[in-house]
Amino acid sequence: MSTATADRTGPSASIPPTPQPSEPPSRSALVVSRTITGILVGGPVVAIGAAVLLWSGHGVEVRTLVLALAFYVVTAFGVTVGFHRLFTHRSFTANRPLRIALAVAGSMAVEGAPIGWVANHRRHHVYSDRPGDPHSPHGFGADVRGQLLGLFHAHCGWLFTPDTTPTRRFAPDLLRDRDLVTVNRLFPLLAVVSLVAPFGLGWLLSGTLAGALSALVWAGVLRMAALHHVTWSVNSLCHAFGKRPFTTKDRSTNLAALAVVSLGDSWHNFHHAHPDAARHGVLRHQIDPSAALIRIFERSGCATNVRWYERDRSGRLAIPA
Ligand SMILES: [Zn+2]
Ligand SMILES: [Zn+2]
Question: N or C end: fewer C-beta atoms under 10 angstroms in the chain?
Fold first, then answer.
């Protein structure tokens, strides 16, 4: 049996000094990035208000909700299977079309371009809940105010701080991947497509501008915001609430309430114990749709070298040799 506990958080995973940016961001760059983040965080709140006003008493068409669900599932798998389990932790090997498809789908979640996303997440695993972690909810004080401040920082407050994660240190492998670099460059376009596509499909399906606008709001803006808050909740809630059946050096937790909407990524305590595992929900009754999709990719021949953990004779989780 192989112990197979190697932490695939990236080539520099075991180097602890806190990373320094090669060049601090200029003031104008910081203003631009904070403005975009502010629109992404606050915009959906305005959209919810508009949705309530526009559709109160009318209801929402079933086809619009189906469209929203479809966009949610595709972009969420892009993040959980693509950005997270494939690109960050190399839980499996994907053929070229699948790599590109997952990079595009994850980019359309508009959580940042793939290479920066991966670099920040690898950094999170290296410094988890210690100085250097970009989004730990801990270290803001033990009183209620400090805990709330920490949760806000881990959820979305950290997005407003200057990005100091050097991609050359945390994601050199992806910087050498031409396809990933191309998708990375196309991120602003893909973010626009993520909103324009629901609008266009809504128009096609309904044949009306009202139908197109409804699809833009529900399958575009609100779908995007819902996934943002689910991903951010894994960063905040899954380091504060829930169960810790596995021993880790951080305070990561398994949070069953988020398992379905996070497509299995809220089994975060096991994930921190074995970051390279393709399946995060390894205990009985733990639903993990992302692992199920990886299994489908494996059976279809698109994915190979999948790191499936199983229990050995002593009951310990390991990857069979
Ligand atoms: Zn974590
Ligand atoms: Zn991870």
Answer: C
